Amino acid sequence: xxxxxxxVYDDPAPEDGFRVLVDRLxxxxxxxxxAAVDLWAKEVAPSTELRKAFHHDGxxxxxxxxxxxxxxxxxxxxAVASLRAELASHPVVTxxxxxxxxxxxxxxxxxxxxxx
Length: 116
Hints:
The radius of gyration is 13 Å and the shape is globular. The chain has helices at about 30-35, 50-55, 60-75, 75-85, 105-115, and strands at about 1-5, 20, 40, 90-95. The two termini are about 10 Å apart. The chain is built from 5 helices and 4 strands.
């Protein structure tokens, strides 16, 4: 299985394969039709507290990354395993996120967890 990353605001494309939104909140101003999401896996997104600390309170990336990895290995471990099993039958999966920064977003970390 190949796991790609893409902003949910970018146009859907056939090469996206199975499209999974991995944000806890639905993206602002985006209709469900335009998003073309096959699955909304909000249970594997960072907790509300962690998301707010990173995006609103200025939590450094390294601290966010460590905290989110801990969440993925702890409280959301079962959800990650279920998602991994559900995605296994799809040759191409695209994790969709709304974050502007392609180098610092939770989808990067989640992809590593799903590939492990």
